[in-house]
Amino acid sequence: MKKDKQILSVKNLNISFTQYYKGLRAKRVNPIKSLSVTINAGEIMAVIGASGSGKSLLAHAILGILPNNATCGGDIIYCGEPLTEERKIQLRGKEISFIPQSVNYLDPLMRVSEQVKIGLPKKEADKKQKELFLRYGLKEKDGALYPFQLSGGMLRRVLFATSVRDNIKLVIADEPTPGIHPEALSAMLNQLRTFADDGAAVMLITHDIVSALTVCDRVTVLKDGQTIETTMAENFSLDGRNLKHEYSRALWNALPQNSFSIYKEV
Ligand SMILES: Nc1ncnc2c1ncn2[C@@H]1O[C@H](COP(=O)(O)OP(=O)(O)OP(=O)(O)O)[C@@H](O)[C@H]1O
Ligand code: NI
Predict the structure, then answer these.
(1) Has the keyword Nucleotidyltransferase been applied to this entry (predicted)?
(2) Of 53, 65, 209, 224, which is best to mutate to test ligand 1, by the most ligand atoms within 8 angstroms of its C-beta?
(3) Shortest-distance atom of ligand 1 to CA 53
(4) CB-side exposure of 149: number of CA atoms within 13 Å?
(5) Which residue has the CA at smallest separation from atom 3 of ligand 1?
(6) Phi then psi for 224, rounded to 5 degrees?
(7) pLDDT of residue 266
(8) Model pTM score
(9) Which of 110, 156, 215, 243 could form a disulfide with 248 if both were Cys (CB 3.0 to 4.6 A apart)?
(10) Given a cut of 70, is residue 72 above it in pLDDT?
(11) Residue 181, CA distances (Å) to 23, 152, 154, 188 in order
(12) Confidence class for position 149, pLDDT limits 50, 70, 90
């Protein structure tokens, strides 16, 4: 696949919810106001922002899994064409791969090895699933277990294994690494890098900016459902003087390892 080709373009995304309370009184909330992000083939775009800034909603809008009471505006273009609700259903789990934030996305009643096999070509599903378990430090016998029998860290690895498929063009990873020990963390980040190097566009939603910077190309900063800035990863360095927006600098300088740097307005 040609690199630098735009795979995903989200323009002026707007998401609101109608909430009913006290019987019939309706209230609208509008957590995503004007959010834009583009990702090219071969690129990892980290998406960062405080809790509640709209990162997961962005992911869910692209995948077509927003709750029913959500209203969505703006444009989502995938490979040059509007990503309609039908196309979302058609493509997710195939060309568009999702690593969800919550392990609740796993089926509680299905053995985890079976869940990793979903979407794999039948003939090689067994072999591939075992390879993926090995790659992410899961034991072969763990495959026979149900989600409730695995630890949080193990479930994250299972989720990651479910995302590795051939012919992926877009990967959306929503906070894929919390509670993961350092070795598995780097295996997962390397896997995201491999997806990108093989030509996919990768969206890495995370709170862990420092780990993300080891693999990502660009960073989009969100605040209150709006894009604050998109910048090259290398601008997250020193005291953040190359970042355009005050808020991005504040996020960067709030990290414990940066707290001693002298922050001056530039
Ligand atoms: N179904 C819903 N109805 C109403 N508001 C919602 C709904 N889902 C999410 N929100 C609101 O939208 C905002 C953004 O939520 P979102 O889950 O995208 O945040 P996030 O950036 O992923 O946060 P975190 O880092 O904690 O995962 C939040 O204020 C949340 O309360
Ligand atoms: Ni989230």
Answers:
(1) no
(2) 53
(3) 21
(4) 11
(5) 17
(6) 45, 45
(7) 42
(8) 0.91
(9) 243
(10) yes
(11) 47, 11, 10, 11
(12) very high
